[in-house]
Amino acid sequence: MTVISRLPGAIEEEWDWQFAGACRAADSQLFFHPAGERGQAHEDRDRAAKAVCARCPVRERCLRHALAARERYGVWGGYTEEERRSMLRRRRRNRVR
Question: Record's PROSITE patterns (predicted)?
Fold first, then answer.
């Protein structure tokens, strides 16, 4: 579940970047895997979602949001949930050092 306490307030400027997302023209199912999806189908869907993200003008902002809100599911900013968890773990390890 997304950590709601980490979400910015209801100020339009905090959210309006989403209107420029390349994903708005895509089927949202591309970015969120169905239950039980494994193997090649999972990899192909992730690859297709990342291709949309690669041409997105707000990719960096999207990734910052996903990391700050701890989005648990889907491809955000060109990264899967596993890749984002790995980023957060590296950040925590680097802070401890």
Answer: 4FE4S_WBL (PS51674)
Look up residue 29 and give its amino acid. Answer: Q
Nearest to 76 by CA among 17, 35, 8, 36: 17
Q: Is 62 annotated as a binding residue?
A: yes
Please write down the HEC assignment for all residues of the chain. CCCHHHCCCCCHHHHHHHHHCHHHHCCHHHCCCCCCCCHHHHHHHHHHHHHHHHCCCCHHHHHHHHHHHCCCCCCECCECHHHHHHHHHHHHHHHHC
For residue range 43-87, list pLDDT tens digits in order.
Answer: 999 999 999 999 999 999 999 999 999 999 999 999 999 999 999
Which tokens belong to 8? 């910015």
